[in-house]
Amino acid sequence: MPKSAKGKRNSVTHSHPYGSAPKTTTSNAIFKMKTEIGQHVLKNPGVAQAIVDKAELKQSDIVLEVGPGTGNLTVKILEKAKKVIAIELDPRMASEVTKRVMGKPEAKRLEVLLGDVCKMDLPYFDVCISNTPYQISSPLTTRLLAHKPAPRTCILTYQLEFAQRLLATPSSSLYSRLSLNTQMFAHVTHIMKIGRNNFKPPPAVESSVVRLVPKRPRPDISWNEWDGLLRIAFVRKNRTLRASFLGTSTVLDLLESNYKTWCAQNEIPVDDGAIDSNGDALTELDIIQNASKTYGEDADEEEWGGIMDLDEEEDPPEYLTEKGNNRAIPFEGCSSRVTSKRKRKGKAAELVREKVRKILEEETGLADRRARQCDEGDFLRLLWAMNKEGIHFS
Prior knowledge:
The protein has twelve helices and eleven strands. The chain has helices at 45-54, 74-78, 91-100, 137-146, 160-167, 177-185, 223-233, 241-246, 249-265, 284-295, 347-363, 376-388; strands at residues 41-42, 62-66, 83-88, 110-114, 127-131, 153-159, 186-194, 199-200, 207-214, 282-283, 344-345. The strands form three sheets. The chain has a seven-stranded mixed sheet with strand order 4-3-2-5-6-9-7, with helices on both faces. Strands 1-8 form a two-stranded antiparallel ribbon. Strands 10-11 form a two-stranded antiparallel ribbon. Helix 9 packs across helix 11 (347-363). The longest helix has 17 residues, at 249-265. It starts with 40 loop residues before the first strand and ends in a 6-residue tail after the last helix. Mean pLDDT is 79; it is low at 7-30, 281-285, 295-314 and 317-342.
């Protein structure tokens, strides 16, 4: 006869008044993290302290913290800074971080703002420290680089691959428009990697801490012009610049429209009635076919519809755009394909094409270079040469 199962001696059952609470599927339902908005709380106090130490805070610093969560990083910042301004989207989290300092002297030095950091006006701050929600990594970085006055430094936790994109160099697989834009306006350095188990709940990917130090003084270039140039070059970063600029009809249409606008603003007459040797005006299809013969089979392999690489989907925010008399040409509307021979091309189109060709092949020598191979200096030379000839991107 089999023996009945016996419990261990002195064991504690769930009915014992001092026993552990039963594990149920609803035990954490009171405060469930919203991972869909990037809520992954940094739980390792050692890592939190290392992040604060890397910021090299002064006693007079005002620190901006984006996404404070439950305040694990906030309380360590308050030990060294004059004031912390924490911006939180989730009211529950805002309440939790407030409770961490309630009744303490630090409570007077903590200001919690409830809202979306990408939509609100940022206050003055000296340093930004953020366990950044991965969904807003790109727009937050752009906002910090555009903020005036520029912060002294930013210590930001990103998804590992996003951090690698910020640090990418020419010819590397992760080199992109994001890399160039960030490195143009800030010095970027890697600080340390953070394993996924240092967060609660653990994210699906590893993380990395990056330091951004905005350049002082800021580069004296137009954001619209710079970003407009890179948008065209990085539509397909493995194509040559000759094919990107001369082999796509919508890009040439954009440059022609901007050239005419620039000429009108500067009272420069434009003759748009050119004809070919047979006396017929050149059609758009003729130009595309000529481009395919001249610039290789990849010149018109795909029309540009305003779509960038994977990490370049967002438009420049309003606070970065110029608000002068120059009008910006929207890129998203340039998605039409050549369907008819009736659309005529005049002298202005050929003039712009010839200007661009001369700049790429003769002045800069970048015609056969691919966007992923060009560095910041190459694109600055290209932008300067284009603007000098009246070719603009905004």
